Amino acid sequence: MSIRKANKTDKVQIQTLMNELNLYRKNIFSPDNQKFHERLTPYPPLQDADFDESLIFVAANDSAQIVGFIQGSVEERKNHKLSKLGYIDEIYVQKEARGQGVAKNLFSELQSEFKNQGCDHMTTHTDFENELSQQFYSKAGMHKATVELWQKL
Asked: Which of 27, 59, 91, 99 would suit a FRET pair with 1, their CA atoms being 20 to 30 Å apart?
């Protein structure tokens, strides 16, 4: 298994994984939370510009098939002591490749890239019902900071 920065030729395989992630979420969310997360389209198609910031990493097996990815973004937070935020937008590893350290390695690569880009902290959101994700982030050294609540109007 190898971890590398994604490039434009990976778009189709990453998009397929994004669609798998969307289906996976439907299986773990309660009907109420599915309403909160429902999208008009599963994910917008990746664009060439999405690869310019080097914040997408992929895990490829020995056959060069992409089996996992992580995507992040960087933003400035005005009036905060921790002012340059690295944000984990998405992480997904196919079921067959889980338990092999793939997610951990993807996380580590993105974390290193955030440091290289001068980020002083990183964060992400995960769903209350997604206990597997919460366990993963906790083992990776992340801490709970907020609770998001919602209501349909």
From this structure: 27
